[in-house]
Amino acid sequence: MSYSIAEAARRSGLSIDTLRYYERIKLLDPPARDTAGRRAYSDDDLTWLGFLTKLRTTGMPIKSMREYASLRRHGVASAGRRKALLVEQRRSVAERIAELQTCLDVLDYKIDNYERIEQSVLGAGPRVEGISA
Q1: Would the keyword Transcription regulation be found if you checked this record's keyword annotation (predicted)?
Q2: Which residues form the domain of 9?
């Protein structure tokens, strides 16, 4: 299947400018061209764009993404280094998840505390119609 740049942008969730930028910085190989010379993205291109989007979501720096993309062009010979990049990124993601879990725990604690305060205020004050203590 072949997709115009607008359709590839829509399907990938990226802007047309981002697609051109990814091509310019060599994250994305130049797509094939149709008979009129317009970019024609393939299903493989869209799969790769989906993976790049996941890498960006993990916070992987563009520099590391570019290294990964360059290594990808070397095929299986670069599998070890590509794996190492992903292992490092996974470590970074796991650290961020742990940090966010700590933040979530603090929020839950504070929310529970305010719920106890609200319950004690409702229990000590006049009965509000429709609300039982």
Answers
A1: no
A2: 2-96
Domain count, the chain: 1
* Enclosing H/E stretch for 107: helix 79-124
Q: Pairing relation of β-strands 32-33 and 39-42?
A: antiparallel
Mean pLDDT of each 10-residue bin along the chain, 133 residues long: 96 97 96 94 97 98 98 97 98 98 98 95 64 45
Report yes or no on 80 lying in a domain: yes
Q: Give the pLDDT score at 125.
A: 55
Rounded to two decimals, the pTM is 0.80
Which H or E run contains 122?
helix 79-124
Q: Is residue 13 part of a domain?
A: yes
